[in-house]
Design brief:
2 domains; single chain; about 160 residues; two-stranded antiparallel sheet; alpha/beta; Conserved hypothetical protein from pyrococcus furiosus pfu- 392566-001, ParB domain; 5 helices
Length: about 160
């Protein structure tokens, strides 16, 4: 890593192999409300953005002339791997829905409600509905053996089961 600096937007460009499609509107709203709170990551040799392609696009849309960037000195193969893992790691993440619900409900009690969070009241309603419909996982499962009555049997392998066929 080579360090972070404020640069003119013309010194960097979206990576041509970025396959991620971001929500530039939501990112623009965040930039307007919070400013840039983490730098874009770009390959020093090419100026290609490896992390923050859509932040760059949102900043351009907002008319920004400068942006914070962290330069990395990597070859093209490593740059492509960084681009992919940055996107994939986000895909693999999920929320603790109960904790998220608690945070969002708490923010709804403030004057600004959910402004600047990326969530809206519809998102909160859906989360609450999903939590209400969730069933607890059983801690113990009943035992079954050959004497347990079943409703269906596979004609090829003779596997027997109950429930939908």
């Amino acid at each position: 890593m080579m360090g972070t600096e404020t640069i003119n937007l013309t010194k960097i460009k979206p990576h041509p192999k970025n396959v991620r499609q971001g929500d530039i509107g939501a990112i623009s709203e965040s930039l307007e409300r919070h400013g840039q709170y983490r730098p874009i990551v770009a390959q020093k040799s090419s100026g290609h953005i490896l992390a923050g392609n859509h932040t760059y696009k949102a900043a351009k849309l907002l008319g920004w002339k400068q942006i914070e960037v962290t330069w990395v000195d990597v070859n093209d193969d490593e740059a492509l791997r960084i681009l992919l893992v940055d996107n994939r790691a986000n895909d693999l993440a999920n929320y603790n829905d109960h904790a998220l619900n608690e945070i969002l409900v708490g923010l709804m009690q403030t004057e600004q409600q959910l402004a600047g969070t990326g969530f809206d009241a519809d998102d909160l309603d859906l989360l609450i509905k999903d939590l209400d419909n969730a069933t607890e996982s059983p801690t113990e499962f009943p035992s079954y053996d050959e004497t347990t009555p079943t409703e269906h049997e596979c004609p090829k392998c003779n596997y027997r089961w109950s429930g939908k066929s």
